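Question (not urgent): is this output format expected?
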Amino acid sequence: MTARSALRRYMLVNFLTWLPVGLMVASMVLLMTERGLSLVQVGVTVTVFSIVTVSLELPTGGLADVVGRRVVLAASAAFTVAGLALISVSTAFWMFLVSGVFKGVARALSSGPATSWYVDTLHGIEGPDADLKPGLARGGAMESVALCVGVLAGGAVPLLVPPSLIFPLAAPPLLGAVAAVVLLVVVVFALPEPAHGRRSLKSVLREVPATVASGLRLAMGGVTLRRLMAAAAASGVVLTTIELLTPGRLAELAGTAELGSLAYAVVAALGFAGSALGSALVPRVARLAGGSVGGAIGGTVLTALSVGALAVTAGLGGLPGLLSAGLAYVLLFVGGSVTGLLCLEMTHKSVTAAERTTVTSTSSLSLQGGGILANLSLGALAAQAGLAAAWGVAAVVMLSSVLLFVRMPAATSSSPAQALPARSGSG
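Got this back:
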């Protein structure tokens, strides 16, 4: 396999992994509220998803490091199919909770293996000093393209589906389930990796906890990785606040749930387009900023200012409100994409193959942890004090995370501060 072939496969898997998520972005909250759930129940459902994801992040990351990336990605696709198929027919709170569990399992399983597969494959082809930025940037751009395409399709489909055929807001999750089936096929046939050999269940159960423990020691034992985990938590606060509060705000501006779904789809698509742009600009931003740390600082500041702009314009109505939200979304996701990809690069440089997925799962766990905190606190704050207050707090959290990058040690897996003598790190 060539480096170009590995990159194409990585980009395809990233696209198919995030397409179902994009299809659900515009309609998920509105689907639940239209079927009788209160905003509190919606928050509980999202929190259950986050808790399941957080609980399984490290075990599934360790599993991917032990049994292989492809097996875990295939299982993730299967759980995605089950979760989205169930949510499309859910009519009761408990059904949405179960679908949240399935989606949480799927998210945990998909956290890291594809990127770890690409990094390991590229290292095998070009050596451990291979430049990761271009490939990670293109992979991140494909994620954003998938989200952009998905959110536009997911927002438009409810307006096109005859209500006599299917509940309109249930169409996007059904399309997402179909996309996940395609992902399952692609993962099985397009991601070759070195055979891990036959292992007994007892052997796997013994190795996974050991890998998780080693990965945790690595993530918590080095200054660089500790700071990167905290930065991921701050990003989780911002992203969850945006996802929880924006659909209802735009539905109110548009007048109906279906039109609100379309409005959110357009605004979110602009944001994901901004994310794709940010991903493409990562190598250039890092050069102009003097390195990955400087680029991450710039992206973090831009993200914080954009969330602050959402807070300032929260009282606008009609077209001005939609336009201001769209502009803020673009800038927010440009900044967030730059920061996220440069943090991902620094994370992979701080580990080696043995715990690569485990450590990147730790980062995802931190992201989800920040999301849980936002779900449980900022949603209630928005209900009591308004959207501006909740978005203002999120902006302050994000801006404060800039301090994590000040005097950050260089990320390198060979550094004694980052690597453990017992096992080589990987993600």
